[in-house]
Amino acid sequence: MIILDGKKTSQDLRNEIAEEVSKITTKGYRPPHLAAILVGNNGASITYVNAKIKACEEVGFKSTLVRLSDTVSQDELLEEVEKLNQDESVDGFIVQLPLPVHIREQKVITAIDPRKDVDGFHPQNLGRMALGMTAFAPATPSGIIELLDRYNIETGGKHCVVLGRSHIVGMPMSLLMSRNAYPGNATVTVCHSHTRNLDSILRSADIIIAAVGRPNFVTGDMVKDGVVIVDVGITRIVDTEKKSGYRLVGDVDFDSVAPKAAFITPVPGGVGPMTIVSLLKNTLIAARLRVRKTSK
Fold it and tell me: Residue 240 falls within a domain, yes or no?
């Protein structure tokens, strides 16, 4: 069993991105600039955005954080989005999800300039990705693809089961795994809450990508020997023995599944770090396009 070490792999990628940023600035161009809009005081969102800002500093990016009250109106939020759309000093930006219930998330996502949509959630980017065209892919699926690539995991002709069908992970993940490229060329089954005979489907899988948000959902008796496991889930579980009072677990019961797996991601330290570095990578791509345009 081999651990798919997202922490180490993401650090390798950060080092590569930092080297690219150095080349850009040495040529006299400004560094890539990533902005984030954070609405409200959701603890998990604050932690995640802070991690993104720290990652920007590490690779030499400029970062900007726009903080708004959870009482902000949808129109006011859309005004902030448009400001960033028009700001030529910003290469890419994200609106941290989830948003307050009175704001329509899709309305906000659609308002983002697709050329600055480094989260890859805009319908134009998702549509282009589905057609095999150049586009910003959502950060988590993109990070998983990078992890599979870096570990040279064979995907062609394999049966890949994606647990979950969200637009953030499950749906784009299924498209990327079935595309005519590497990693890809897999036969993909997408499972969800209405799927029948789930255990049987999982036991036939060569690759399982679990993204259902249910702690320890996939157990050892549900997988076959030699399976590749990518665990996207992350849930806080009360643990009085921990100083923090909790521990993090994934959608996969690591202790029972790991002995049967050929490769497996840990939680934490697997997919999470790859998500953040993929966001940096998308921002670097946006900056390259800007540099190319400027140099003409």
Answer: yes
52 is catalytic: yes
Q: Which of 117, 119, 231, 253 is catalytic?
A: 119
| Secondary structure (H, E, C), 186-235 | CEEEEECCCCCCHHHHHHCCCEEEECCCCCCCECHHHCCCCEEEEECCCE
Global pTM value: 0.93
Model pLDDT for residues 163-205, shown as the tens digit of each residue: 999 999 999 999 999 999 999 999 999 999 899 999 999 999 9
Whether residues 145 and 105 fall in one domain: no
144 plus 259 within the same structural domain: yes
pLDDT in tens, 212-266: 999 999 999 999 999 999 999 988 888 877 787 888 899 999 999 999 999 999 9
96 is catalytic: yes
Active site residue 74: no
**Residue of 5, 91, 96, 116 marked active site:** 96
